[in-house]
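1st attempt posting a full record on here, be nice pls
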Amino acid sequence: MWGLFIVIRNEILQFLKPFILRLIRINKIPKICFYTFLIMHTSLTIIRYRNRAIPLAFLSMALFHFPLWFSKKYSFYKLLGSGKNGTFDKVPDLNQWAILLVHKGPVTVLNNPSTLGEFISKWINLFAKESFTILMEPVAGHGKWDNLEPFGNLDSKNIYEGPVATLTRATIRLSKMKHFWQHVAPVAQKMKAANGYVFSIGIGEVPWIKQATFSVWQSVEEMKVFAYSMKEHREVVKKTRAEKWYSEDLFVRFRIIESFGTIRDANPLRIKS
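the predicted structure (as C-alpha cells):
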C-alpha cells in the first residue's frame, strides 16, 4: 500500500512540477517552495570487482564522469572510493567503489538501466563481480557538499521515524587530520555493535581528507541512541566543533524506498528485519 502511495504521489508531483517552476520564475511563490513539491530521489550504488579487474575499477572512476556530466537526469553525482571496514578507514578497499546520484525526477523502477545510464549499467554487468543499489528520499539534514545543498533545502529535523539511512560527510582540515583519525575512527568501529545497526560503508572522494560514512538503521530512534547516548561519540562531536576539524561537513537522513542487488553475495537490507 505504501509503495502504491509513493508511485501515485510522484506522478502527481511530476505533473505539477512545470507549473511550480513557472510560478517561481514569475516570483509568485518563493524558491524554497520548490523543494516542498519536488521529490529528490537519491541512489547509492556499491560496485565490487574481482582482484584482476581492479585496474578497470580505477579506469571506471575516470570514464564514468562523461555520461554522468552530460546526462540531464541528475542534479548531482559523486564517484567514490571505499574503506576496508565499512566505515572511516585509512586503508582503501580497491575491490569496492561507489556512485552517489541525486536524480532530477522520481525513480519508480530501481532495477532499470536508466537508473545509472546505459553505459555504466553495461560496464557493471560486464566487468563487476556484483553491485548493490539503494534508492532513498532525503527527509532531514544540514550542511553542504562542495558548497552546495545537493539534497535540497532540508529541515534539520523530521517526524519520520522508520528505517533510516544516514550520510555523514566531511572535508578534514590538513592540520586536524591526526586528531580526526585518532578519535573518529575508533568510535566509528563501535557503531557495528550498536542496537538497530544494519549496514554501513565508508566512502570518500579523496583518501584520508574527504571522508564519509553511509549507514542504515532499523529505526531513527535506534540511530539517535547511538549518536547521542554514547559518551565517546558525543565527546568526538563536541571536539569536531570546538576545534574546527572540518572545513565543510554535511549530515543527511534518508527514508529508504527500495534496494536491489547484492554486496558480498547478500542484500544487506534483507538480512535483518
